[in-house]
Design a protein that fits this description.
The structure is a single chain. The chain is α/β, with parallel strands linked by helices. The protein has three domains: 185 residues, NAD(P)-binding Rossmann-like Domain (Rossmann fold, 3-Layer(aba) Sandwich), CATH 3.40.50.720; 85 residues, N-(1-d-carboxylethyl)-l-norvaline Dehydrogenase, domain 2 (Orthogonal Bundle); 95 residues, Rossmann fold. 41% of the residues lie in helices and 13% in strands. Helix 1 packs across helix 3, helix 8 crosses helix 11 and helix 10 packs across helix 11. The longest helix has 32 residues. The protein is globular, with a radius of gyration of 23 Å. The structure holds nicotinamide-adenine-dinucleotide. The site of nicotinamide-adenine-dinucleotide (NAD) has 27 residues, from helix 4. The site of nicotinamide-adenine-dinucleotide has 27 residues, from helix 4.
Length: 390
C-alpha cells in the first residue's frame, strides 16, 4: 500500500525474490507506468532494471484495494504528514488501513513501515484494522518494520542495511520475521512493534541533534576565526563524530520525527524530558536566518543597491542528489531572502526551470548573478564586487 519513494523500491525488491506482489497506490498514472515496465522514480539507482523486469508481471500496480484481496501479506507505507503544530496527520494512514481492513482475511499479516510515533501500531492502527475487518488480533497478525532506506540508494539499503521488525504481540513478531526473512537478508526481530517504532524515531533524533551541534560549533568557529572543517577533521575519531554544518534539516523524515517525542512529552506534562530535542529542532530551523545574515553581509561588498543585487541560491532541494523539496531549508532560505525584498533566483542540477518556478522561485543562471550561495558547500561567492573596505 503506497508505491512512493519508499514503497516502490521495496515492492520491486520483493518481486525480484520471485514473490508475486500487488502494489496499491491511489496515483493511477504511477500505476500505469509501473505496469508498462517504466520506472516513475528514475533517480533511484537500480530501480529501472527491476521495474522493467517485473513491472506488470511479478509486480502489478493497481488503484484498487480489492485487487489485493488474494494477498496474505500487506505492507503499508503511505505517508504521514505533520500539521502546523507538528502533530501527525493520520488521515492517509487511517484511510489506507480502513481500506485494507475491507480485504483482510483470517491468517493474514499486516506490517506497517511508515515511520510513526511509538505506540501507533499497537494503538490506533490495530483499532482501525479490527473495526474495518471485523476480525480480532490473533485472527490476523500485525507488526511494525520501519523503512530505513535513503532516497537514491534504497535498493542497496534493502539488500544490505540491517532492518528491524517487531510484532504487536509475540506471535505477530515471529510470523512477520519469517515472512520478511524471505526478501530482507539482514533482518533483526525486536521484542515489540513499539521498540521497532522507537528505533527509527531515535535515529532521526540522533541525526537532528548532531546536525544542530555541528551547526552551533560551525557558527562559534566562524565567530572565532577558526577553520571549522580543519578542526572537525582532527576532532573526529572512534568516539567523536561531528557532523557537517548546513542550512538546517529538511526532507520527510529527520525534521519530523523529533516532534513525535517532543509533543508526546508535552501531552504528558513532561516537556522537561525533551529539552535537547526541542532546542536542536529550533536551532536547525533558525539556520536559514544565520545564512540570510551572512548573505546580506556579503552583499555589502557589491557595488549596487541591495534591492538590485541578483542573488542565486545554487541548490534548493533539501539534500544534494535528492530530487525532493519537502521541508527544504534551502528553498526556505531562498524564500526568506525574497520576502526581505531581495532579487533571488535559484539554480539546481536536479530541477528544471519549470520545477523551480513551480516551487515559487525564478530560475537563475549562476553566471548572471552578482552573488551565488551554494547551499550544499555553504559557500558565498561574489561574481561582481568591490574590495572590502579595510
Ligand atoms: N522516502 C524515503 O527516503 C523514506 C525513508 C524512510 C522512511 N520513509 C517512510 O515512508 C513513508 C512514505 O514515504 P515516501 O517517500 O514513499 O512518500 P511518497 O510521497 O514518495 O509516496 C507515497 C505514495 O503513497 C501513495 N498513497 C497516498 N495515499 C494512499 C492510500 N490511501 N493508499 C495507497 N497509496 C496511497 C501516494 O500516491 C504515493 O505514491 C514516509 O512517511 C516515511 O515514514 C520514507
Amino acid at each position: 500500500m503506497g508505491l512512493g519513494n519508499a514503497g516502490l523500491p521495496l515492492a520491486a525488491v520483493i518481486a525480484n525474490h520471485g514473490i508475486q506482489v500487488v502494489g496499491v497506490d491511489i496515483d493511477r498514472r504511477r500505476c500505469d507506468l509501473i505496469n508498462s515496465g517504466k520506472n516513475p522514480i528514475p533517480h533511484e539507482s537500480g530501480l529501472d532494471e527491476l521495474i522493467s523486469r517485473h513491472g506488470g508481471k511479478e509486480l502489478v500496480a493497481t488503484t484498487e484495494y480489492r485487487d489485493a484481496s488474494s494477498c496474505s501479506v500487506f505492507i503499508v507505507i503511505v505517508p504521514l504528514f505533520i500539521d502546523e503544530n507538528h502533530n501527525p496527520d493520520f488521515r492517509t494512514l487511517e484511510s489506507s488501513f480502513r481500506s485494507l481492513g475491507g480485504v483482510l482475511k483470517r491468517g493474514d499479516l499486516v506490517v506497517l513501515e511508515t515511520t510513526v510515533p511509538p505506540g501507533t501500531t499497537e494503538g490506533i492502527a490495530l483499532k482501525w484494522l479490527e473495526e474495518s475487518s471485523g476480525l480480532r488480533l490473533g485472527q490476523f497478525y500485525l507488526a511494525h518494520s520501519p523503512e530505513r532506506i535513503m532516497t537514491g540508494c534504497s535498493i542497496s539499503r534493502l539488500r544490505e542495511f540491517p532492518k528491524v521488525i517487531g510484532g504487536v504481540d509475540e506471535r505477530s513478531g515471529i510470523v512477520a520475521y519469517d515472512v520478511y526473512r524471505r526478501f530482507i537478508p539482514n533482518l533483526r526481530l525486536v521484542s515489540s512493534a513499539r521498540v521497532a517504532e522507537m528505533i527509527k524515531v531515535m535515529e532521526g533524533c540522533y541525526r537532528d541533534v548532531n546536525i544542530a551541534l555541528a551547526n552551533e560549533l560551525f557558527r562559534i568557529s566562524e565567530e572565532l576565526g577558526i577553520d571549522f572543517y580543519e578542526a572537525r577533521e582532527h576532532a573526529n575519531h572512534e568516539y567523536c563524530h561531528i557532523h557537517m554544518p548546513s542550512t538546517g534539516v529538511g526532507g520527510h523524515c529527520i525534521p519530523v520525527y523529533p516532534w513525535f517525542l517532543i509533543n508526546e512529552m508535552v501531552r504528558r506534562e513532561r516537556a522537561e524530558n525533551a529539552v535537547m530535542l526541542r532546542t536542536a529542532r529550533e536551532l536547525n530551523d533558525r539556520m536559514i536566518h544565520y545564512w540570510m545574515d551572512r548573505i546580506i553581509d556579503a552583499c555589502m561588498h557589491i557595488d549596487k543597491p541591495l534591492a538590485e543585487i541578483r542573488i542565486c541560491i545554487h541548490g534548493i532541494t533539501y539534500r544534494q542528489g535528492a530530487k525532493e523539496l519537502h521541508h527544504s531549508r534551502n528553498l526556505a532560505l531562498a524564500k526568506l531572502l525574497k520576502s526581505r525584498g531581495l532579487k533571488v533566483g535559484a539554480h539546481d542540477e536536479m530541477l528544471s526551470r519549470e520545477e523551480i518556478s513551480k516551487a515559487g522561485l525564478e530560475w537563475m543562471d549562476p553566471k548572471d548573478a552578482d552573488l551565488v550561495f551554494n547551499s550544499f558547500e555553504l559557500s558565498v561567492k561574489l561574481r561582481r564586487h568591490r574590495e572590502a573596505p579595510g
